[in-house]
Please model this.
Amino acid sequence: MSVNETVKFGRSKGFFETFDRRPGPIKKNMHYCPGCGHGILHKLIAEALIDLGMRDKMIVISPVGCAVFAYYYFDCGGISVPHGRAPAVATGMIRANPDSFVISYQGDGDLGAIGLNNFLQAANRGENMTVCFVNNGIYGMTSGQMAPTTLVGQKTATSPYGRSATNEGYPLKVAEMVAALESPIYVERVALTSTKNIRAARTALRKGLTYMREKRGFSLIEFLAACPVNLKKNASEADDWIENNMIPYFPLGRFKDVASDRSPIERPEPVFDKEKVVEALFPADSGLDWRKKEAKLRKELRIKCAGFGGQGVLSLGLMIAEMGQSRDINVSWLPSYGPEMRGGTANCSVVLSNNEIGSPIVKETNLLITMNQPSMDKFLPDLLPKGLLLYDRTNIERPDTDRRTYSVEAGRIAIELGNPKCANSAIMGAFAACLRGIEQVNYEEAFEEAIRKTFAKKANLVNLNIEAFRKGKESVKIENVN
Amino acid sequence: MSGATEEKFRVEIISDECKGCLRCVNACPREVIVPTDQVNMMGVVYVEYADEGCIGCGACFYACPEPGAITVYEKKK
Model:
């Protein structure tokens, strides 16, 4: 450039000066094939980032697809995410950083197939983001398979005789679908083909980004773009193909623009302060001063609670988990919901551990608590050789097993106290006694705290359950010690 | 293509950044971007500016998928 001229159109500052993140010797070019529509759109985005002053607060999120390496190029925040998950990650970003801007840059296979649910839910929530949807009617990165937007009759690697509407259905009209939702504010379909269409695309993109800057909500811009390599055409033929075949089915135009009717969206303020998060999760009036008490378990306990639906086995498991949580032990509680709940055995898995818990599913059991005969028959084979069995002998026969076995007449205790529903607290009392034997630590206080918390909204049941708990603890009977 | 007066606009094409897709050639309303018979370092037959006739519309710049292969300059008045 000589001193007496200026750049009218040139490389945007929205791109890195050199693409140092890109491996290999080529640092000025992008990795796209010759004639690819991605490059055209990248330039429009880079230019808009600078012109609209959004670069410093922009995060471009690109999931799997040819554009997964978008972070090589844009001089702004960038994340690559798993296939189809860009709108979900974008939601997290925008909720945690409400003053940032997020572009979700997705292809048709990504957005229309694997990520359709993530995308539609984000659109329906009206997240403040701009989705750039690049629709080329084919899977480009994996070399030309049929995509959700492949046209009827179009030949691809996986539809060698052409897409058939009777077998594969019709191409997905994403823009029309999103425009039908209430939340999105701006939906437009454009094409990256002729100069006129590229100009319209540039205007649409800037409109979407401007709305995002004003926090108006969700906008979708669908770009019909050429994939010359996989269409087996040159760039000019690919553009003609888009104009003659895609546009008649995917008409260009603005499907929705209601931004002027909407006020800027407001979301709950994000909270990052640890103390405030703890306070939100464990309010001071919950009666749990858990931060001061810590307990170390001698080993991870994998517990199965099982019984008849309605006996309170799920809340038994929940109270045990509450107890662990109140002592800063890692816990998981996983109920088994299923058809067996309707009048059969119900069960839940509880894990208490000092380490992070890998799987919340308990198969090989350290501690088995059974409250009826069918669940005893079902789960006793899973009890480890050094495991411990605790059962309600009111209604279960003494099992023929060499495991360490304890029993308690939980059902009878509950009936004597006048409420059969507190049998679970009684058996928990017996469990507390067993745990004391295993751990050499008395968790009785923590269990009672857990009962108080569980029944916090049913004050009249607190004392009943605590009494059942104490009676259960006192009347536990050793059946077998191996 | 007046030719009589000095050109107001000028296109510069960095040949090593050209991938030879010919989008700019198709987009140029004045047909002043033309293919060459030369091969660049990427092994691509690149295009060049015909040295005169640019009207500064930017069609080639927006049609080109590469960030910096094409630059359009305007002479200061």
The mean pLDDT of chain B is 92. The beta strands of chain B are 9-13, 33-39, 45-49, 70-75. Chain B is about 15% helix and 30% strand.
